[in-house]
Design brief:
This protein has one domain: 3-Layer(aba) Sandwich (Rossmann fold), CATH 3.40.50.620. The termini are far apart. It has a five-stranded parallel sheet with strand order 3-2-1-4-5, with helices on both faces. The protein is of the alpha/beta class. Bound molecules: 4'-phosphopantetheine. The site of 4'-phosphopantetheine has 10 residues, from β1 and α4.
Length: 159
């Protein structure tokens, strides 16, 4: 059975990310969550912090592993024997860029397909950027991110 690669910045992970990963874990024997070490935007949380949050949130899933990468996603997929990239789509606005990335990855690594999973409507409005913005100004993000992320955002806001 093929294995799945769920890549992202996860700065921080939201319930939307977790939903897509948990659903992927139902369909694939092995799911690798790959955290990009140096996202294009300066991250709020270090690579270790982002990985640790994901480990804590997803620790109940035996078939999910947390890793990190720098460089091309296709190289990571090949080196770790991962067959399919899984991405969540919140709205049509996500589609254009995600399609472009999927086609670039396919051009770089023929046979490496991307499967799109629709976001759960409960989380369709969520993004890491909005969560960070709301938390920075003291808004409540409980219920949008895991408790460990709420705590980390609070610590960052007060620190
Ligand atoms: O959570 P994000 O920021 O939407 O994740 C984007 C990510 C990390 C999946 C994407 O930027 C990526 O795959 N970067 C690795 C560089 C790469 O392979 N680029 C060429 C293919 S588009």
């Amino acid at each position: 059975m093929p294995s799945a690669l769920c890549p992202g910045s996860f700065d921080p992970p939201t319930n939307g990310h977790i939903d897509v990963i948990e659903r992927s874990a139902r369909y694939f024997d092995r799911v690798c969550v790959a955290v990009i070490a140096n996202p294009s935007k300066q991250p709020l949380f270090s690579l270790d912090e982002r990985k640790e949050m994901l480990r804590e949130i997803l620790g109940h899933l035996d078939n999910v592993e947390i890793a990190s990468f720098d460089g091309l996603l296709v190289d990571f997929a090949r080196e770790h024997h991962l067959d399919v990239i899984v991405k969540g789509l919140r709205a049509v606005s996500d589609f254009e860029y995600e399609l472009q990335m999927a086609q670039m990855n396919q051009a770089l690594s023929p046979g490496l397909d991307t499967l799109f999973v629709n976001a759960n409507p409960s989380w369709a409005f969520l993004s890491s950027s909005l969560v960070k913005q709301v938390a920075k100004y003291g808004g409540a993000v409980d219920g949008m991110v895991a408790p460990v992320v709420v705590a980390a955002l609070k610590a960052r806001a007060s620190g």
